[in-house]
Amino acid sequence: MDDLRSGTATAAQLQDLLVHHEDVLEFLQHLARLSSSSLSSRGMVYCGITLQRSRELTFTVASSDSTALEMDEMQYAFDDGPCLHALRVHEPVHVPDTSRDERWPEYLKHVVAQGVNTMYAVPLDLEGHSRAALNLYSRSPGVFDEEFQRVARTYAAEASLALRLAVRMSQRATTVEDLQAVLQSRTDIDLAIGIIMGQNRCTQHEAFETLKRASNSRNLKLKVLAGEMVARLNGAPSETHFQPS
């Protein structure tokens, strides 16, 4: 247990991130990587950070790696899952064994196929109406035990404070511009999934899998391929209507 406590990021490390990364999204990206490395003392932990500005606007603003990003993106495609539930009820959500949990069967079927064994989502406290969560994934069984959860909640509280300070320090115009870019990627992916569903008369899950396979085969990021599909059909890039709160 001492290894877990000593391995977590301290308030000083989080403050150091603030000093060196005044841009909010740059700070969040480094926070995701720091969270992953700090909480991986017993087994590799992948970390995604979800931001919800309204019921309709939920997206991953940072991830430690492609595994966390894919787990988050698939959750948004189903519009339900551990991290979204954690945001909605503002309580931590633990999935001790993804192959046995029955709360989100379709989503967890995909998670199991990717070799992710356990999940833990912890809400982050923000100001105003926005919500955020730290989404933790691991392929190692039993990593997220009670001691880990306690440490992760403490860490999330410190990260929440650092994030609130980062938001205050950031210029509003830059923040809105960066969030607009993230939301644009989310819009393109959702539209591309809709296009595939219409063309192939398939489910949302099947459309996402088709898009992912095409992304892998063409060695293109999912958001890039989705943007190309939308632009090709629309005759122009998609437009995202975004009203910051």
TrEMBL record:
It comes from the Bacteria. The keyword DNA repair does not apply. This is GAF and ANTAR domain-containing protein. Gene3D superfamilies: 3.30.450.40, Winged helix-like DNA-binding domain superfamily/Winged helix DNA-binding domain. Residues 169-230 form the ANTAR domain. The keyword Transmembrane does not apply. It comes from Arthrobacter pullicola. Keywords: Kinase, Transcription, Transcription regulation, Transferase. Pfam families: ANTAR, GAF_2.
